[in-house]
Design a protein that fits this description.
By secondary structure, the chain is an alpha/beta fold. The chain is built from nine helices and 19 strands. The strands form four sheets. Strands 3, 5, 6, 10, 11, 18 and 19 form a seven-stranded mixed β-sheet that branches. Helix 3 packs across helix 4 and helix 4 packs parallel to helix 5. The relative contact order is 0.16. Bound molecules: zinc ion (2 copies).
Length: 348
């Protein structure tokens, strides 16, 4: 069968390779790969050498954002042939640490976890793949192709989960939400905020085009000015740019008892001129919470499936701005203006 493979850090090796069918020991459920989504991690693996191939291999099957259809599942499992599924990316470390031992590999403490398509496990960029049923989440059949957004949606489902848990430390009725960055993560965070009934505002640099339109279609408010100039005093801020200056500006822009969740990372190395004492004072005197969030547990994939099922299908379809056939998948890593989510079609 064909697979999208690359030796991390060697973009010249990125291509389609014939590899063996997935062996039964990889999991009792056999899945036909339909689509995979591309994100910054895939670019980093290919060009910058992030990522680890499976032990004994030079190349890794790329991609961790999956959509597949079950071909074979054991009798008695919750899955049957024809079901639409997403594969869970992270697996617990073998030790396992305390969070991993309780199904919360997203909080792994020793870094010994593995991740499909990123760390020591082949990804989902192949015509067929296998997984144990406990690492697959069933999607509603009506979700269709936008089911490929399940993994990025699971990441923001987790962010929202902990925003509400942490904010709930005291009586709290958040109303206004600010999302920075209108990429796929920011737009999905805004989508969930709207579903929860909040007054959602999204900030990005672009002044026109698809991103402002998508925000408006959600019923949220788009701004192209820096968050500090808006005077919004959000109860919740979800930061999706990873830009240091944006992160620090948000720390002093929250309403009392506010919660700021950081989901982005950037490679920039700029020394920032920040007033640390003022930031500290503001956070202390307003009970401010700032926390980071990465990855997702199984329940967040299940929440993601529900959020996608509830969302407007036509709105979600617009997030997929480019489809690249498997044969030319390296083109999917090239950024072009107007891209929101690029996907690779494993059937084309
Ligand atoms: Zn990703
Ligand atoms: Zn662990």
């Amino acid at each position: 069968m064909r697979a999208c493979t690359v030796a991390p850090g060697h973009p010249d090796t990125a291509g389609v390779e014939e590899i063996a069918e997935p062996s039964a020991e990889l999991g009792e459920v056999l899945v036909e790969g339909l689509l995979v989504g591309v994100c910054g991690t895939d670019v980093e693996i290919t060009s910058a050498g992030y990522g680890w191939p499976p032990p004994g291999h030079k190349r890794i099957v790329l991609f961790h954002e999956s959509l597949g259809r079950v071909l074979e599942a054991p009798v008695g499992s919750d899955l049957t042939a024809g079901d639409l599924v997403v594969g869970i990316v992270r697996r617990p470390d073998p030790e396992p640490c305390l969070p991993c031992s309780q199904g919360q590999w997203d909080f792994c403490r020793n870094g010994g976890y593995t991740e499909r398509g990123i760390k020591e496990l082949d990804g989902f960029g192949s015509q067929r793949w296998r997984a144990p049923a406990k690492y697959l989440v069933k999607l509603d059949a009506s979700v269709g192709d936008v089911g490929v957004l399940s993994e990025p949606t699971s990441v923001v489902a987790k962010a929202w989960d902990y925003v509400e848990r942490l904010g709930g430390r005291a009586p709290w009725q958040p109303k206004r939400v600010l999302v920075t960055g209108a990429g796929p993560i920011g737009l999905l965070a805004a989508m969930i905020g709207v579903q929860k009934g909040y007054d959602v505002h999204v900030v990005d640099r672009v002044t026109d085009g698809l991103k402002p339109r998508l925000v408006a279609q959600l019923g949220a408010t788009y701004h192209s000015k820096p968050a500090t100039e808006l005077g919004l005093l959000p109860d919740v801020a979800i930061e999706c740019t990873g830009v240091g200056s944006v992160v620090f500006d948000l720390m002093t822009s929250l309403a009392p008892d506010g919660v700021l969740c950081l989901t982005g990372i950037s490679s920039g190395k700029h020394a920032l001129d920040v007033d640390e004492s003022a930031i500290n004072k503001q956070l202390v005197l307003t009970n401010g919470i700032v926390f980071g969030s990465v990855n997702a547990a199984r329940r967040h994939y299940e929440q993601a499936a529900a959020y996608l099922h509830t969302a407007d299908r036509q709105w979600l379809e617009q997030l997929i701005t480019r489809r690249v056939p498997m044969q030319s998948w390296p083109q999917a890593l090239e950024r072009s203006d107007g891209d929101v989510k690029v996907v690779v079609d494993l059937l084309a």
